[in-house]
Amino acid sequence: MAELTSNPLYSCRNCRNPLALSEDLLSKAFVGKSGPAYMFGHAMNVVLGQKEDKQLITGLFSICNLYCSKCGQDLGWKYVQAYDARQKFKEGRFILEKAKLLKEYC
Ligand SMILES: [Zn+2]
């Protein structure tokens, strides 16, 4: 991989809609519904689904599903609220599944 290019961008694997910047990537250590997932501080061109409470591995959270604004593909979720104080840092963060992303260099 060419690590010399400076601004990699993560886009939708399905329609190449730009979704997140690599500088907003916070962690690669997450697990989504279909496998590895990344946590971002910001995401763009996404549509939020209905808010719901969900029991995840690390506790109970209020989350919204995330969809691509162009093709509607299910991408991951956004943490809206953490019920466990130790998980508060995840609030407002975006989880995008690696399998749904395409890394591009521009
Ligand atoms: Zn898409």
TrEMBL record:
- Which key words are in the record? Metal-binding, Zinc
Q: Which organism is it from?
A: Actinidia chinensis var. chinensis (Chinese soft-hair kiwi)
Q: Which PROSITE patterns match?
A: YIPPEE (PS51792)
GO function terms (MF aspect): metal ion binding
Family, according to the entry, reads as follows: Belongs to the yippee family.
**Pfam families registered for this protein in UniProt:** Yippee-Mis18
Residue ranges constituting the Yippee domain according to the UniProt record:
8-105
**This protein's name:** Protein yippee-like
